[in-house]
Structure formats: structure tokens, C-alpha cells
Amino acid sequence: MKIIKIQDILLTAGMAATGFAATSVYAASDVESNEHLVEETQEVVVVDQADDGLTSKTIIDREAIQNTPDGNGNMTDLLKSHVNVRFEKDAENGFQGGEIKPASVSINGAPTSQTAYMVDGININNDIDPHSILNDGSIGVLPGSSSEQAYFYDSSMIGSVTVYDSNVPASLGGFTGGVIVADSLFYSGVDRVSLNYRTTNDHFASMQMDDTVREEYKKGSDGYDAELQPKYQKDFVNLVIEQGITDEIGMVIGLSRRQSDIAQVRVVDAKGTLDEQDQTRQIDNVMANFRWQPSAEKSLDLSTRYSSYESGQFYADMDKNNFIDQHRAYGATLTWQQPIVTGSLKATASYDDFNDSRDSNSADAKEVLVDDKLYRDGGYGNSELRQRNTTVKVDYTSDDFDALGLKHRISGGLASTETKYNFERFSNVNQQVVVSIPDWEDMVTHADLAFAGNVDTDYTIYSAYIDNSMTVGNWSFRPGVRVERDDYLENNNVAPRFSTSWQALAHTRFIAGANRYYGRSFASMKLAEGISELSRDTTRRFADIENFKTPHADELTFGVDQNIGNFTIAARYIWRENKDRLVLRRTTDLDGKRLDEYVNGGDYHVDVYTVQVSNIQPWVVGPTLWNTTIGIDWLTTNRADLEATQDPEESVVLDGEEMTRREMEGKINSSQEEWNVRLGIDMKLPEYNLTWSNKVYIKAPVQGYEEIGETEPRRFKSYEFDTHTQWDTQVRWQPSTWGNQDIYFQADLLNVLNETRRFGTQANGNDGDFGLYSPGRQLWLEVGYNF
């Protein structure tokens, strides 16, 4: 076991030093003589310090999206370089290279469910069941395709992505981590069509595995979720049309399909005959946006969107049990913006419909045990989960005005979101476990029944906000407040927001803030109550929900921005205290009957330290332009993510020290990497229409613990897997052909060094445990045509 790989640090430091030193030699003499090159290609990923640094946000614009080496081309793939963003440790599993579903992300150490997603100013979080907690585990009758973001956007349809990580303005709510805001493409005044094709497969990838799983890996998994994926083929197609209709009206239409076929060996008849068949994954996106702009100050935007994810699955050891889990989302947003006497007014109305469904070929599932061998047959019926959001909001921003010796700009707004939830099970679902003994009648040892029926619930949240951006001399202030009320918990949540900045010197600015953020809705909890009643399940207790508090996070921030020559340096410290998390706890009564209940608990704190350095103007080296960035972050937290059955106050011994289970989980902090180093070195060769983008990530060891022996109290030992260095590179050649037409060829090589790291262990029966590893080297090829 290695605590840290020194050669990785030296390699990355050497690359950074080479990039900075080499470009520094030429910058002073060449920037002035090559100003035309600099003007043509500016830095494309910026930490936006608008509002005099009062808001900490990072904007990834269209060009940065295009030049970021990524895999599946979704929105969260673009966030790997953000210093406040973490991916859960098993987000990239090398055994599941065929998957295309977006990964979940955590901001500032918060749970992934506490990241807010927005598109075109509207929240698009799927709050039905993103972590599959509605299903009690006894019988698999619920769809399994949910994710925190309801729309699985293709990055080709996104104009920009903005990440708010601290000092978030009062206009944004519904999170304790941060906010990811996507703006879809709107007509920019230029008519064009973009068409591209992107592909990869298992032959373009390298995979590390232990000998104990090698033979099993060749045929795939016994389960329905294809945990082992030896063969896969991914094909992505995107089309974007931007067209002016009149001098004042323009439209953008986008279509995309992402398809993955994953080969698995499975039983195909009652005799146990094995054959190879494909599981499938497919994401479709459709976008149609219209903009009417009668003047520079007035605009009417209509954005429509559709996203569909289908997962065609089967149990490898069950005949005739195919089923399709599908997630669909569609919606529309209408926005009118115009000036009024003292400022500008923006009115927005939207509707979104999210749907998770399961289409199975049977509603009867049977497990038959014959001579110690288990045979399965049948399926788990058809069911549907649905969420519908209707939002109306009005935002106002005043013109700048002077009062009491300060310059002011006031922003305020009102919003209401009504959300309706529905669950429907279309038929009774039966599950039996049968023991079959020759010359004896089959014996049913266990049976479950899920009843058909329909559950409807609803939930409305009202919000209002106001803030005032004020400046006087070298000081800027933004006091504000956000007030929210829901009609389920009936809590009045008041979230004060405050940030300030001081331009101490010409190139030195200090930033500070104190804020409170209230968390997401409680849809899954409310819907679970109705589903329990439908299923005649009396094990979950909901009576105390009326007394629940809304989860919230209190934040203090301090930072400094410093410009030195052609470098800008941003250092930040963020302190978060997270309180009143809603967690599910499972106990048993005196009769041994299971009892599930939701409780407020699991408070934790987070300390985040970040430093980012980047060049302000591109460095000029001969005919090339270079942008270099480096980001370092350190995160400490005592967050404990315990399973429902684990007692947080249970006494345990970790590495010889007695503590509670909650303290052990918080100390090991296996849910987060402690530190990360992110390096970007991007080159442009304008004369030949060539770009070369590089991202290098060095990640802290993954921590964990395992039980040693059966003692009382239970004893555990901690472990660390290796640090991990990953270098992703992209080369793009986009020569002009004729007129305004061009074709481009692109190759993304992820994990150039082919270095993998172990992040977990999985049992494999009598064959021994095997390690779970991050993906190895992967090549993606892409070709596109723009006209």
C-alpha cells in the first residue's frame, strides 16, 4: 500500500513548471507582437468575479465545453476541474465501462442529493427517488432509473454551465451544497448547422482486474444491473440547427442520441442453455428554443426540452425476464424580460413532467432451489413514478441609484412551485421462493405480494428574496434574505445572505461572507408514506414528520484575489455547518417487527480550502497560444453516511480506539477524497486550426474500514488505497473547407498514463474477493461537420 506516489507529484509539478516557465520566457516579448493571436483566443474557463467578487461562481462557456476532454458528453463530466466539486468514490467503475448515465456530484462535501440543478432559470431536480430508498428491498417492484438531475443533457446542447459554490445570492435556493445552472443554446444571430458522431468500445479501453474475477468477467454478471461489462459499444450522434426566422426571431433545434450495447452471457431456456445477449442503454435529447428580441432591452424566450433514458435489462440466470426501466422528462419555459421605469422586470412560467417507469414481461417472479442451485423465472410487473412541477416567478432588478452616500442595486423576486407526485402499480406482483426436492411436492418457503394501486401526493413551496448590492469607495456589500415556506412540513425558513469585498490595493481584493442555505424538498419521504399504505406496510412511521425541521447549512467564507503580472491567484476558505439532515433509521420492536422512521440527525461540519492560479492573457510561444491553470483543494469533514440498519451510537473499536459508529464513519470519511490537485494546460495553433487540451488530476487516497473478527464491541481496521493520477488529453483539428463550412476531427484519450486505483472490494463467493478499480486508458473518436 502506498500513501502517496512521489513520481506522480513530480510528474505533475514538472508539467506545471514546464508550462509556466516556458511560457513565461516568451510572454513578455511575444504578447505585444502577437496581439492578434491573443484577441482571437481568450481564456475560456473563468472564475467570474462579477458583482465585485460578491458571488463565488465558475462559468464554463461554449468554447470550454467544446475543448474539455470528457467521456459520455453530459453536464457533470464538465465539472471535473472545479475545485469545490467532488464525485463519489465509485462514480467511475472500470467494470462498468458501458454505462452512459450521468454521475452524481457533491459540492463542498454535501450529499449529492443536496446539489441543485437548474436549466434556463428553472429547477430540474428529480426529487422522486434519486437514491432508490422508496423500495424497502423485499421485492423489486419500483423503477430504477432515477438521478438527481431530471434531464440527462447532452453537452452539445448547452450554451454554458455556471457553478455557484459559496456566497450564493438570495435568488437561488433548494440546496445545502451548491447550484449547477445550465443555459441551453439560444439563437446568437448566426445561422449554422452542427452535426457530429462520437464513438468508443471495449477494444479502445484498458481494464485492470484481479485474477479471482477474470473468468467471471468474461461472461458478465448474474444480476440485472450488469456489474461486469466485458464487451460494449457506444455510439453518439448530435445535430444542432441555429436559424434566424425573421430579423427579430431566431430558433435553435437540437437532437441527440447516445446508445450503448453491453454484451452479457445469460440463460435462454429452461434447460439452462447459455448464450450472449445485449443489455442496452439509450439517452435521447430533443431541444427547441425560440427567441423574439424586438429591441436590445426586450426579449421573449420559449425553451422546450425532452430527455429520455432507457435501460434494457435482464437477470442473467433467469429465462424470459426482460424488462425496461425508463426515465422520461419533458417541459417548457416561457420568459419575458423588459425594462420598466426604475429597472428591469423578468417574468417566468414553466412546466416539467418527470416519469420513471418499469415495463416487465411478467408480474410473477419465482426463485426455485434445486440441489443447492438457484433458478429464477418471471418478472416484477409494470410500475410508474411521476413528478410534475409548475413554477411561476417574477424577478426585478433596479437600475443603479445613489442613497445615503452609497451606490445601490436592488434585486428581488417571488416564486411558487407546485409539485405533484404519483405512483402507480398496474397489477399485483407475486414473488415466491420455492424449494424443489425430487419425489416431493414443491415447498414455498417465502412469498411476497405487492398490491396494485395508485398513490397521489402534492407539495407546494413558496419563496421570496431580496438583496441589495451596495458600493462605497473600495468596499462592496450585499446583504440579502431568502424566505421559503412549504405546505408539507409547514416550516417558515428564513435564510440570511451576506457577502462583502474590499479592494485593498490595485491588484488585491479580500472577500468574506456569512450565509444560510435550506435544503431540498421531501418528496420521497411523503410519497413513501402513500406507497407504504398501498402495500399494507405498517413498518414505517410518519406521524412525527410534522415536527421535522428543514435541513440547512450555515456558511462562513473568507478569501483573497491577487493579480501578479500575468497571473491571477484566488484563495478561499469555506466553513459549513450542516444541520437537521433527514435520515432513515431502521429498528425492530419487542416482537422483532421491523420499524423504519425518518429522523432529523447526522449533523456534520466541513472545512474547504482552495487555491487557484491561472494566467490572465494567453501566453504566446511562436505561433501557439497557451492557457495554464492549477487548482488545489483540501476538504475535511466528519460527515457520516450510515445505512438505515446501522446504529450511529453503537460502540465500536477502530485501530484500537473505542468510539461510536458515527465517529468512525466521520473519521474515515470514506465518502470524500481529502484533497485534489487539478492542472490544465491548453494549447491553440490558430494558423492550422488545431487545439490541444490537457487536464491532469491528482486525487488523495480513498479511505475505508473493514471488520476484523467477531467480537463485542465490534472491531475494525482502517485502510487507504493509492493516490491516483489521471491525465486526460484532447486533440482537435478543425480546418476550413469552403465558405463558412468546416469539418473537424477529434480524439479524446482519457487516462493517458493508464494508471488505475482501487476504490473498493467486492465479494465473489468461493472464488475470493476482488478489487473494484477506476477505468484504465480509453480512446474516444469524434468527427463533425459545421455549415
Automatic annotation (TrEMBL):
UniProt KW keywords: Cell outer membrane, Membrane, Signal, Transmembrane, Transmembrane beta strand, Transport
Places the protein is found: Cell outer membrane
Signal peptide limits: 1-27
Domain of life: Bacteria
Topology in membrane: Multi-pass membrane protein
UniProt keyword annotation of Membrane present: yes
The TonB-dependent receptor plug domain, residue ranges: 54-178
GO cellular component terms listed in the entry, alphabetical order: cell outer membrane
Record keyword Transmembrane present: yes
Family statement: Belongs to the TonB-dependent receptor family.
Record protein name field: TonB-dependent receptor plug domain-containing protein
